[in-house]
Specification:
Heat Shock Protein 90, 10 helices, 5-stranded mixed β-sheet, about 375 residues, alpha+beta
C-alpha cells in the first residue's frame, strides 16, 4: 500500500514539474533568472497552471471513472472535445505568450544587407499558439490517463492477490475441518469400546483425547511447534494401542531434537491413521513401524504397515491422505517430497519436509 501511494505521488509531482517547466521553455527561452521569476509570478502564468491542473484532475477524477471506465465512450469523447474548445477559447498559453513575448533580435546596421532567414521587422512568435495549446491539452490528457490506468491496474492486481490469498486460507480451513473430525470420530469409537468393557485405561484415554482436542482447537494457525505435533501423534498412538491385541506391534521412533522447529498441524496424522485402519488384523500378526528423523532444517517421516486383502485397493488411502496432499501443496510448495508405495502387501509412506524455520509459528498465511 505504501509503495502504491508513493508511486502515485511521484507521478503527480512529475506532472506538476512538466506543467511548470513547459511554459518556461516555450516562453522564457534563453533568458536570465529575472525573466523566469517574472513569468512564474505573473497572473497569466497562474491562470495557465490553474486551467491545465483543473483539466488534469477533472479528467482523472470524473471523466475517466464516471464515463470511460463505465464504457460511456460517446459522452467521454464529447466531453474531451468540449474541454478542448473551452481551452482554445480561454487561450491561457496565448495570453501568457502575449504578456511575455520573445525579445526582438537586433536589426543589422544601416546599409548592411539582411542575412538570409533574418526577419526584416519585429519577430513574430515562432510557434502558433493553437498548436502549442493542442499539444499541452493532449499531453495533459495522456498523462492523466496513464496515471489513472496504472493506478487502477495495480489496485486490480492487489485485489486479485488478496482474493487468491483468502481463497487459499479458506481451502486450508476446509481441509483441516475435514481432517479433524476424521480422526476424532475414530478415537471416540475406540474410547467407547474401552468404556463398555469397563477397561481401566478408559480414564487415561479420555485424558489423552482431551489433550488432542485442546491441541486441535487451540492451534488454529497454519504452523505449530513440531513438539506439539509429536505430542499429538504420541497420544493418538497410545489410544490405538489400547484396543490392539498382542498380535499387533507398534514401533514409534524419534531421532533428533524438535527444538523450535515448526510444522503444519495434523499433516502427519492421516498417514498414521491409514496405517492403523488398514494394517491391523485380529487374526494375523502384523507390525506398524513409524519413524520420525529430525535434522537441522528437515523432517523425514516414514510409516510402514501391512495391507490386508479384506480391504479394497481403492479405499486404502482415504480422504485424510488426499486432503493432506492438498495442504502440502499449499503450505510446502516445492518444499516437500511425498512417496507412497504398495508392494507385496506392504504399504510404505515417506514424507520429507524442508524449511522448518522457527519464525513460521508467528505467520499465518
Amino acid at each position: 500500500m505504501m509503495q502504491l501511494k508513493s508511486s502515485v505521488v511521484l507521478a503527480h509531482l512529475t506532472g506538476w514539474l512538466l506543467l511548470i517547466s513547459l511554459p518556461l521553455l516555450f516562453v522564457g527561452g534563453q533568458t536570465d533568472g529575472n525573466r523566469a521569476l517574472a513569468i512564474l509570478f505573473s497572473p497569466e502564468f497562474f491562470v495557465f497552471v490553474i486551467t491545465y491542473s483543473a483539466l488534469f484532475y477533472f479528467h482523472t477524477n470524473f471523466l475517466l471513472p464516471q464515463l470511460f471506465f463505465r464504457k460511456q465512450y460517446l459522452l467521454y469523447f464529447l466531453s474531451i472535445i468540449l474541454l478542448l474548445l473551452m481551452v482554445n477559447l480561454m487561450q491561457p498559453f496565448d495570453h501568457l505568450l502575449m504578456r511575455f513575448p520573445h525579445p526582438p533580435r537586433m536589426q543589422p546596421p544601416a546599409g548592411h544587407p539582411i542575412p538570409p532567414g533574418f526577419p526584416p521587422g519585429p519577430v513574430r512568435m515562432g510557434f502558433h499558439p493553437d498548436y502549442i495549446s493542442f499539444f499541452l491539452f493532449m499531453l495533459t490528457i495522456a498523462l492523466s490517463a496513464a496515471i489513472e490506468t496504472t493506478h487502477r491496474w495495480r489496485q486490480t492486481e492487489k485485489r486479485a492477490l488478496y482474493a487468491e490469498t483468502r481463497k487459499t486460507q479458506a481451502e486450508l480451513s476446509f481441509l483441516k475441518a475435514q481432517i479433524n473430525p476424521h480422526f476424532l470420530f475414530n478415537t471416540l469409537n475406540n474410547i467407547y469400546s474401552l468404556a463398555i468393557t469397563h477397561n481401566e485405561f478408559a480414564a487415561p484415554s479420555i485424558m489423552k483425547l482431551s489433550n488432542m482436542l485442546r491441541y486441535v482447537t487451540e492451534e488454529n494457525r497454519n504452523y505449530v511447534l513440531l513438539q506439539g505435533e509429536i505430542g499429538c501423534l504420541t497420544d493418538y498412538i497410545d489410544l490405538q494401542r489400547l484396543r490392539l491385541s498382542k498380535q499387533t506391534q507398534v514401533q514409534f521412533t524419534i531421532t533428533g531434537d524438535p527444538g523450535v522447529k515448526c510444522i503444519a498441524p495434523l499433516v502427519l496424522l492421516p498417514f498414521v491413521e491409514n496405517a492403523f485402519k488398514f494394517g491391523v488384523s485380529n487374526h494375523e500378526a502384523t507390525e506398524i513401524q513409524i519413524r520420525l528423523d529430525i535434522t537441522a532444517d528437515q523432517v523425514h517421516f516414514q510409516c510402514t504397515n501391512r495391507v490386508f486383502k479384506s480391504f479394497p485397493q481403492e479405499n486404502r488411502t482415504g480422504i485424510g491422505i488426499a486432503n493432506t496432499k492438498q495442504r502440502l501443496e499449499h503450505l510446502y510448495p516445492e518444499r516437500y517430497q511425498l512417496t507412497t508405495e504398495s508392494r507385496n502387501g506392504i504399504f510404505f509412506v515417506s514424507l520429507i519436509l524442508d524449511g522448518l524455520y522457527g519464525d513460521k509459528i508467528h505467520s499465518d498465511r
